[in-house]
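Today's session is about reading a structure prediction critically. Students often jump straight to the picture, but the first step is always the sequence itself: look for stretches that repeat, for charged clusters, for runs of hydrophobic residues. Only then move on to the predicted structure, which in these notes is written as discrete structure tokens rather than atom positions. Here is the chain we will use throughout the hour.
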Amino acid sequence: MKFRHVRQVALVVGLLLGGHYLAAQEPRGRSAPTRPGSSPRVEVPPPTSPANKSVAAPAVPAPAGRKQATTTRFPDPEWVNITTAARRLGLKLDWKVRGREAILTDKATRLEVAADRIEVDLNGQRVFLGQALLPRGGELFVTKIDLERCLVPLVRPALIGRVKRRPQVIVIDPGHGGPDKGMINERLNLFEKTFTLDTSQRLKKILEARGWKVVLTRDDDRQLKPSKADDLRRRAEIADEVEADVFVSVHFNAVEEQVEKVRGLEVFRFTPQYQPPISRAMRRLDDAQLSPGNGNDAWNSLLAHSIQNAMLTRLKLEDRGFKHERFAVLRLVSCPAVLIEGGFMSNMSEAKQIATPAYRQRLAEAIADGLSDYRSTLEKLRVTGKAATP
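Below is the predicted structure for this chain, in token form.
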């Protein structure tokens, strides 16, 4: 009842904000950014002060004897300079290009960031923030949202806060089903819905052997509800009904252009409140909508990165990145949740690979390894003495 009430409130707020995402539609091509192998260079407009809000000036080098501000607003949300962010992450800061490019390191971590880019490099893997870093006054600034809900979970998860209980119940969501075939490779007569179900069933067997309680949102070729919106809502309801600790939606991707160039693996978390999804550079009013999926922003990041790392390690495919979107299937889920894209059906060579049982078995094993890593991290955090959330 509590979760149903939260979802109803979220829907009302979304309608008031005019957010079209509540239509519960998935984009035709879920991949973002669309240019293969690269992240968009985001054009950030110069900060301007709203008429009804005072805005702190961009940070500049402080005069001798005066303490420099570590956070500022231009105008929203709060931004943190990279020096402060490095201290928060326990990393050493070195400038590659002063005020433009920086490298943050310790013995186990190498984080490379650059001005005007949402993509950062973490130990050789692609991570996409919610907003591009801003250069101001010889410094770089990162949003506090990106620092606390993305970078902290990946680099210093002990700083997230109260630790989730040891995950035992997982809902695996085979994307699409029934009349909704998902992505289609017409030349090979391949349907996404077929492979999401098969991969999910394989994953279920692996996880059960590792001690998980596993629930599938569907175990045959069907749509859960007549309308797409109700179908996606029902998938989230199943997770709430079984009090799931983790929700994983399994998909395969496709693009309409440069089909033979775009390939690889992606994992999506739900976009944090106040940030635009990766498919859109500029913020909008409806980005302020708070959804149930935002209740686990930091844990979503840790879960997504754990799975992405395991998939890249085991499958050796192209890294399309750890990303974020406002996918309808993630919006209403009340536990940590991710959406996995296990390859591109629009790419002929990758589609042929996806069509083989051997690949889908390896993919299922990789996802299971990522889930085991996530659970292991939570267990280690609990040993340090942090209490579990209710």
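Discussion point for the tutorial: Confidence is low (pLDDT under 50) at residues 1-6, 8-69, 71-75.
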